[in-house]
Write a structure and sequence with these properties.
216 residues; mainly alpha; single chain
Length: 216
């Protein structure tokens, strides 16, 4: 079991990293603006269930395999990028008429579906695996017992902190979206912006990995 002082230091470092918006935060904000607080919080839960998958993989040593295998890394990276782009294209091609027929605001996806998308988005993000592989071991003390157990403790702590910070982003974004949706033409603009953000995240994921390969 990690020492209390080590756990406190880890908490401080994790909070510092979590408050800086990254791809997961942008995805959550997009969902929150698009469909409101419930959808944003569902995406938060999905993203962090995906994070738990990476935590378990790190504890079992699978992250080391992903890091050491260029083929595995790039396969996961391209799958993740393609999934984000697919979500974005579907959003851009959604019919405004169908949304209008369903009532005010954009066409709503079910919360289960949004949750599942959040899981897939984060599971297919190899940078999350790299993050845990590089970040968590810095706080592990081999003299304090089982290394996999310590990794799980730090990973679960990170997920709990992430639920709080990302949940705050979702609530704030949905609150602002409520005001925006009362303005004419915002439903269409929201569709275009959210679709563009998802496509941009996918392209960024693909290009970031390509730049890393070129520089290595």
């Amino acid at each position: 079991m990690p020492e209390a002082s080590t756990l406190a230091l880890f908490t401080l470092a994790a909070i510092t990293l979590l408050v800086i918006p990254g791809p997961a935060v942008l995805y959550i904000v997009t969902r929150s603006v698009d469909q409101g607080r419930a959808a944003g919080l569902a995406s938060v839960c999905g993203v962090h269930v995906g994070t738990l998958v990476h935590v378990a993989a790190a504890a079992l040593g699978l992250s080391a395999l992903l890091v050491s295998s260029a083929t595995a890394y790039h396969a996961v990276r391209w799958l993740g990028a393609a999934y984000l782009i697919w979500l974005g294209v579907r959003r851009l091609l959604a019919r405004d008429e169908a949304a209008a027929a369903a009532g005010p605001g954009p066409r709503r996806l079910g919360l289960r579906r949004i949750f599942a998308q959040g899981v897939v988005v984060n599971v297919l993000n190899p940078k999350t695996a790299l993050f845990f592989f590089a970040f968590l071991p810095q706080f592990v003390d081999t003299s304090r017992g089982s290394v996999p157990f310590q990794v799980l403790v730090f990973g679960v702590a990170f997920v709990l902190l992430g639920l709080l910070s990302d949940g705050a982003y979702a609530v704030a974004a949905s609150a602002g979206a409520g005001w925006l949706r009362r303005r004419p033409g915002v439903a269409r603009a929201s569709r275009l912006v959210s679709g563009g953000v998802l496509i941009g995240l996918g392209v960024t994921t693909a290009l970031a990995g390509s730049r890393s390969s070129a520089s290595s």
